[in-house]
């Protein structure tokens, strides 16, 4: 595996993370591999997007890092310490005060019987900070809410405001890393950008690192410094967010991007090209990367396809250091799990329906 050439010091490193779930009854031996041998670094003060379709394993990674799930194997290194080994049963308070999670559903994550003041006070006190009125107000102001909301119940706030409260609660412990699992997917489009801008501001002003999990490629392009693409429990591509989105190197990334409507190119949705990409993913016959344009099935697993670029928001924040090089998993590595076939079959059906609809529309127009 090739590592970035110009890295910022990783705040958190993941090595060979694998997670199997038992499925069926308690006596069942059937297991599903949700995450398979995933490795990446999360640099301090940068936003890393983890994109992929539903079921690709994104939330499982976040839950493993938040220590809500116990990984089957692998290492999670925070400041160089493998916390899965040193804190086997549960995460220490020190770990939880550095790594916080914000969930997709802002309503579900706030107990409806408590006022906003309660959530913020509890987070401050649990992590050894004093919950003065000033501290509570500062938290609310940081996330763009007002002091009077301290006395509100969650149901009295909008979805966007509730998500800001969830972020304020995470901020109360002064974390170095926020794991944000689809934090805007349940919000109206009109308030999404406000939450994304808040995340960007927290990175810029407080140097907080974020793992931003989403299936919305547009928001990943808008927000992230670095993007990683996940397919069927494995990472297939990563690097500078703009490079990955503008020059995707893996057929799966291309397949994902080809489903994003492009208003500048009418008819850009091309089921034939998508079928070709699916075939290239499941039954690869060649890989265009490697030293001489060919490569073997063994090593390296990752090919570098682009130079490390300067951090996207680097000019006002030179201390953030350089970006990561753009890498792609060798095309000859077919995905390991059956989930891959299931996911691609689903996109196959969608393409069939899209083609039928287009043909119908064309016939009607004629
Ligand atoms: N507790 C569990 N028990 C059994 N299987 C699980 C469990 N949690 C997740 N899985 C399986 O693991 C795989 C990955 O799920 P995960 O929720 O991580 O995907 P995801 O990419 O986050 O999807 P989504 O965007 O829909 O949340 C799926 O096949 C899912 O069915």
From TrEMBL:
For this protein, what is any one GO molecular function term? ATP binding
Q: Where is the ABC transporter domain?
A: 12-257
Alphabetized, the UniProt keywords read: ATP-binding, Nucleotide-binding, Transport
> Which segments carry the region annotation Disordered?
343-366
Q: Which InterPro entries match?
A: AAA+_ATPase, ABC_transp_ATP-bind, ABC_transporter-like_ATP-bd, ABC_transporter-like_CS, Oligopep_ABC_C, P-loop_NTPase
The protein's name: ABC transporter ATP-binding protein
Record the organism: Streptomyces ureilyticus
């Amino acid at each position: 595996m090739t590592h970035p050439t110009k890295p910022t010091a990783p705040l958190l490193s993941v090595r060979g993370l694998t997670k199997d779930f038992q499925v069926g009854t308690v006596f069942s031996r059937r297991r599903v591999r949700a995450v398979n041998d995933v490795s990446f670094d999360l640099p301090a003060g940068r936003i890393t997007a983890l994109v992929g379709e539903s079921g690709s394993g994104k939330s499982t990674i976040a839950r493993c890092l938040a220590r809500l799930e116990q990984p089957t194997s692998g290492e999670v290194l925070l400041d160089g310490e493998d916390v899965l080994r040193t804190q086997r049963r549960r995460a220490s308070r020190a770990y939880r005060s550095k790594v916080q999670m914000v969930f997709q559903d802002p309503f579900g994550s706030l107990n409806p019987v408590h006022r906003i003041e309660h959530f913020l006070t509890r987070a401050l006190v649990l992590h050894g900070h004093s919950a003065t009125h000033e501290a509570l107000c500062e938290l609310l102001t940081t996330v763009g809410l007002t002091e009077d909301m301290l006395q509100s119940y969650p149901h009295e706030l909008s979805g966007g405001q509730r998500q800001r409260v969830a972020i304020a609660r995470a901020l109360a412990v002064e974390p170095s890393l926020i794991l944000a699992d689809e934090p805007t997917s349940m919000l109206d489009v009109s308030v999404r950008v406000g939450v994304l801008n808040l995340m960007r501001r927290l990175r810029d002003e407080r140097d907080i690192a974020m793992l931003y999990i989403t299936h919305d490629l547009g928001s990943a392009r808008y927000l992230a410094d670095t993007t990683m693409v996940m397919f069927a429990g494995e990472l297939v591509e990563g690097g500078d967010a703009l490079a990955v989105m503008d020059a995707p190197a893996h057929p799966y990334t291309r397949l994902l991007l080809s489903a994003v409507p492009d208003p500048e190119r009418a008819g850009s949705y091309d089921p034939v090209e998508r079928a070709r990409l699916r075939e290239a993913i499941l039954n690869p016959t060649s890989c265009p990367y490697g030293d001489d344009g060919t490569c073997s099935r063994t090593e390296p697993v990752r090919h570098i396809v682009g130079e490390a670029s300067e951090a996207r928001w680097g000019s006002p924040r030179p201390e953030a250091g350089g970006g990561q090089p753009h890498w792609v998993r060798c095309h000859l590595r077919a995905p390991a799990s059956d989930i891959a076939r299931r996911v691609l079959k689903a996109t196959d059906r969608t393409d069939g329906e899209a083609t039928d609809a287009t043909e119908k529309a064309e016939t009607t127009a004629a």
